Protein: Aspartate-semialdehyde dehydrogenase
Organism: Chromobacterium subtsugae
Amino acid sequence: MSTSLQLAVVGATSLVGQAILELLAERNFPAARVFAVDVAEQDGSTVSFGNLELDVHMVDEFNFENVGMAIFAAGSAVSREYAPQARDAGAAVVDFSSAFRADAGVPLVAPAINAAELEDLGRAPLVAVPNCTTTPLALALAALLPLGVQRASIATYQAVSGSGQAAMEEMADQTTALFSHRDAEVKAYDKRIAFNVLPQIGELDENGDSEEERSVRDETARLLGLAPESLEVTCARVPVFFGHSWAVQVELHKEFDLEQVKKRLQAAGLKVVGRDQHGGYVTPMEATGNELVWVSRLRAHGKVVSMWLSADNVKAGAAIHCVRIAEILAGQSPLM
């Protein structure tokens, strides 16, 4: 593995960008230097990288010829404009945004599921990382594929951190305002999120499916080789700061042994919680701050297995997969 690799994290001040930097430091990513890069609004900012404080470079002034790899976590607009520039300069790009996920020519990778997609990509590859709501769900469904997945019905309960720091601050401000008997300002979402549930994330299409529902359905289907119509998805935003949850019902080809399902989930790296553990279920609060996908309320009804998933949307849903892809690509030197 190369130790001369220089790496840029674009969107370094975002929630996902900060988590990526934290994981890179914790896992001793073999980079000679790490650059923090972000948009002009973050000029003058610093971010933590292990014991270091990194000055934030402006993306419109950054020379990508200085790095062999760039991890993008700054949103689709920044990725569309600057990821091609990074590749033209010779850098491998790992992109956590919606910019390239639907592009058939760009591998969509969750390393625990389809790391083989990272082989033989050539110089300056571009790899898309799935939606943070997709990957934990896909990990659970992938474990059940050998049992024959017929259909799956999924309801998501998504934390406001999925919308970024401004949405979190707005929910906090709304909560304070309501306790103070003041009007709660609404900017981040169409309706108030504090003490509320919003059953729509993103714009609706002609069928009434939201942008987030299409994303989770189509990306999960692509990762697992399933027909999109076999997945029914409803996405809701809930007044939780961190941690997504999923209520999942999976219809299999035939009746099954629940203990076998449990073992398959565990073998896939998911943390299965029994009735005698953690009060019998795991909440977003308990899932926050770690890289695990937690499974609880596991049960069977005929051919249908039902489960409750919880995971830290920033760390377990997004950042760890960006870092693992970067580790794999770095191991396929030379990158520079």
